Amino acid sequence: MPRIAPSLPHRSATVPTAKVSQPTSPAPATTESKPVKHPGMPEGAPTYSPWEKSTGEASNLMVSGGDNKLTPPPGAKQNMLIDRPGNPFQKDVFGGKVSGGLGSMQASTTSHSGGGVHHYSAQAELNGPHAAYELQKVHAGRLGVTSGQLTAEANALKASAQAGISADTKGHAYTAALTAKAETGVGVAASASHDFNRHVGAYLKGEGKASATAFAEGVASVDPKTATALLSAQVGAAATAGAYGTVGGHVGRLHGSATAGVVAGAAAQAGGKLGLENGFLKHSADVNAAVGVGTHIKTDAALDLRHHIKPGIAAGLRPSLASASGAASSAGVVQPEKSRVEKFFAKTFGG
User: Fold this and answer.
1) CA-wise closest residue to 147 among 44, 39, 48, 302
2) What sign does the CA torsion over 86, 92, 97, 98 have?
3) Which three-class secondary structure state does DSSP give residue 151?
């Protein structure tokens, strides 16, 4: 069975005035269930994904593309043509929160000219009726903090499109892009976590998703500094459903998780490229299709190099915060002392 390559040929080119987005899976990120952290834990910990492995036919069933390719430079002028928020709503029911909207629409143009940088683009986004439900419970006991979270979301339609050009006349780097993407999907996720203290904890998460997506894009890029002059185009469509389970936890500053799942559906993708890419003359045309059931495996690990707040302070805050806030939030929590690495970068870059 042919494999659908997730990467795009033009994404390796470095263009100063254009930002190329990373590939995404066809399943919209409708649900994002995260374990509630212990009130004594510092907020804002970065997440790292040093490696990822796919087996079976999972990669064949996940197409990527159609995302906006051009990011305006600082100081660019935006002209809003259509801005309809779509009457969003939010209500507390059954111990949780229901939110959504009847649809929204936005369209704008962006322009910038100065300092040798020129950017002109038009973009639009359409969101159909959507709804979400979130329920979160936290209990603080003698053995630690136990939390549970349930999220569910349904999107009738999400669509976006962009067309534009970005040029750096001083660096002789030019990019023109035309993209379009539409997707629909539903998802549900549930997670449970228990932190014995701010040093040791574990969580369990399960989720299911079903979605359909279609995209088309074309990009032309010229960048002499990277020896690139490339034309690229591709289209794709997929309909998939998947179920995933995650286990993870933390011991001291070491955090980790493992995810396993199964994916079923069908996908098709076609594309081609012609030109000079990073000094290599390339020409290719690909037409791929896949149908079946596959597995997906992913592992994550991260080491927290920041300074934790002192145990005495954390112990004093824990009982009151667990009962008062009900969930980990930065409000009322003493911020952790910055490490020497953070202080160095803050002083160097004025952060």
Assistant:
1) 39
2) negative
3) strand
The token duo for 267 is 């996908």
pLDDT at 126: 95
DSSP-assigned beta bridge partners for residue 17: none
Q: Are 171 and 16 in contact (CB under 8 A)?
A: yes
Contact yes or no for 186/210 (Cβ under 8 A): yes
Name the E strands within 252-279: 254-277
Please count the other Cβ atoms lying within 10 Å of the Cβ belonging to residue 3: 11
R_g of the chain, CA atoms, integer Å: 23
What six digits make up the tokens of 223? 């960048």
The SS3 assignment for 5 reads: coil
Tell me the per-residue pLDDT of 252-286, one tens digit each, with 9 for 90 and over. 878 888 888 888 999 899 999 899 877 878 888 88
- The structure's pTM equals 0.65
In whole angstroms, give the CA distance from residue 167 to residue 137: 51
